[in-house]
Design brief:
Layout lengths: L1 E4 L6 E8 L4 H13 L4 E4 L14 E4 L6 E5 L4 E5 L4 H10 L2 E2 L11 H6 L16 E7 L5 E4 L5 H7 L8 E8 L1 E2 L2 E10 H6 L1 H7 L2 E6 L5 E10 L7 H26 L4 H5 L8 E6 H5 L7 E9 L3 H15 L7 E6 L14 E9 L5 H13 L3 E2 L9 H4 L6 H11 L8 H7 L2
Parallel strand pairs: 2-4, 3-4
Antiparallel strand pairs: 1-2, 5-6, 6-10, 7-11, 8-9, 8-10, 12-14, 12-15, 13-14, 13-17, 16-18, 16-19, 17-18
The structure holds flavin-adenine dinucleotide (FAD).
Length: 430
């Protein structure tokens, strides 16, 4: 019997039977045996969800030995992988083949299946979340059958299963669309928050990948503008990359957070140091620009809202943080993506802006997160499935036009709830 906890350490499980299969056949047998005796099964990825979405209750499947690249089709821009492969390993292999993921989030510790299952996304108006790259997948369902799903085979399961919350079965292999490798020119600089908000539409249209962090207790934002370039990787790009992503974002920032946790009253003063980083510009391979190491642990909530609501929603949050005198050491992250058609994708059917709030590990976060959620609910905000929120099925069903369509597929594939857990019972209501 083993125990498990997630990256942030706020979700735990014990008394688990742990399975580490190496083949689809083994996975199928584990699921079949569990279903026969009425046990519940949960696949865990890298444990990078803050919610209880990955919490196993009885049998835990861990796929670190089921993590190979099955096929690379460079000519047609496709890669087929076993579902336990970690994004950073996939990026390294794609780089060797002069290929790349079109977009990525902030980190690449997640497994491919884990990140796609919660609608993980990066930023960029011309891109949508990672799940929009799925061309097909193989799914072991509760009755122990393997289904190959793409737009022509089990089309309804394919349509819904691209963001599955782990509720439909075990994904064993996936084929993803990839693009020729590209470099990015990164420009990172502090700007006045009013300047960013007054020019937000222009900034996201003028840059391939734009994001910013509003620094609470200040009038500043840290902006990141990443643009595709044919320029080669800078000789000193690697050093600047390390300085920004490792030293400033992890070592120096971690120290500020620790001091702030000890003496919260100092946080507003400490916050004024953050925007003094200055302007940095460098060129590097896309996945090294998109993602960073994260050594500072935190809790996070993130909501997606309609793009056009970003400015009023963020202004309300800024006003609320001041009025309630919250002491927040983590900047508030803002990103955007284009729409997709995936029923449980947080950007389904709309151009989306994402507002993410964080709290340093060990600090109380409930009041702050609940206050932010209260504001974002007025804007029909949809919470990230892998990040903390307080909604249940009754609230969530009204936020997704195809929520019921997903529930029907889920009820058809897993009527006995072999793949369920507390979190899924809460957000799916069954
Ligand atoms: C430091 C940090 C940075 C982050 N940055 C971003 C970001 O930039 N953008 C963003 O959108 N999110 C981000 N996240 C959230 C993260 O991407 C998601 O929570 C993601 O789902 C985690 O992937 P994982 O491999 O850890 O999966 P887990 O959290 O372990 O599992 C997530 C879900 O996937 C299911 N699952 C895993 N494998 C399978 C499988 N083979 N078949 C079926 N279901 C499966 C699990 O059962 C569970 O339901 C971040 C999280 C952290 C901790």
């Amino acid at each position: 019997m083993s125990s498990w906890k997630n990256w942030a350490g706020n979700q735990r499980a014990k008394s688990l039977i742990v399975e580490r299969p190496t083949s689809e056949e083994e996975i199928t047998n584990i699921v079949r045996r569990a279903a026969d005796v009425g046990k519940r099964v949960k696949v865990v990825g890298s444990g990078h969800s803050f919610t209880g979405i990955a919490v196993p209750e009885q049998i835990m499947i861990e796929l670190s030995r089921f993590n190979k690249v099955v096929e690379i089709d460079s000519a047609n821009g496709k890669v087929t992988v076993q579902s336990g492969i970690v994004l950073s390993d996939l990026n390294a292999i794609l780089e060797q083949h002069n290929l790349s993921m079109p977009n990525l989030g902030d980190v690449t510790y997640q497994t491919v299946a884990g990140s796609l299952s919660t609608s993980t996304h990066g930023t960029g108006l011309e891109r949508s979340g990672l799940a929009a790259q799925i061309l097909s997948f193989r799914l072991v369902v509760a009755r122990g059958e393997v289904l190959f799903c793409d737009p022509s085979n089990h089309a309804e399961i394919f349509h819904c299963g691209r963001v599955s919350l782990g509720a439909l079965g075990v994904i064993t292999e996936m084929t993803l669309r990839v693009v020729p490798a590209f470099n990015l020119r990164a420009v990172e600089r502090p700007m006045r928050i009013d300047e960013v908000l007054n020019n937000y539409e222009q900034l996201i249209k003028a840059n391939d990948f734009f994001e910013f962090y509003w620094v609470p207790h200040t009038k500043w934002a840290l902006t990141k503008s990443n643009n595709v370039t044919t320029d080669p990787v800078d000789v000193d790009g690697k050093i600047k990359n390390w300085w920004n992503k490792m030293f400033l974002e992890n070592i120096a920032f971690g120290m500020l957070c620790r001091v702030g946790r000890l003496v919260p009253a100092l946080i507003p003063k400490l916050a004024t140091i953050i925007p003094s980083t200055g302007r940095v510009e460098y060129v590097n391979i896309s996945h090294r620009v998109f993602s960073s190491k994260r050594l500072v642990k935190f809790y996070e909530m993130e909501y997606s809202i309609e793009l056009k609501s970003l400015v009023p929603a963020l202004r309300e949050i800024m006003e609320m943080v001041d009025r309630r005198q919250f002491k927040i050491s983590f900047p508030v992250e803002v990103r955007c993506t284009g729409p997709d058609d995936i029923p449980l994708s947080t950007s389904t059917g709309r151009q989306s802006a994402y507002i993410a709030v964080h709290m340093f590990k060990g600090c109380e976060y409930d009041d702050y997160f609940a206050a932010v959620e209260h504001i974002l609910r007025k804007y029909e905000g949809r919470p990230h499935w892998g990040k903390l929120h307080y909604l249940d099925a009754s609230a969530l069903s009204g936020l997704y036009p195809e929520y019921q369509r997903f529930i029907e597929v889920r009820n058809q594939l897993d009527p006995e709830g072999v793949f369920t857990n507390d979190y899924l019972r809460r957000v799916l209501g069954c």
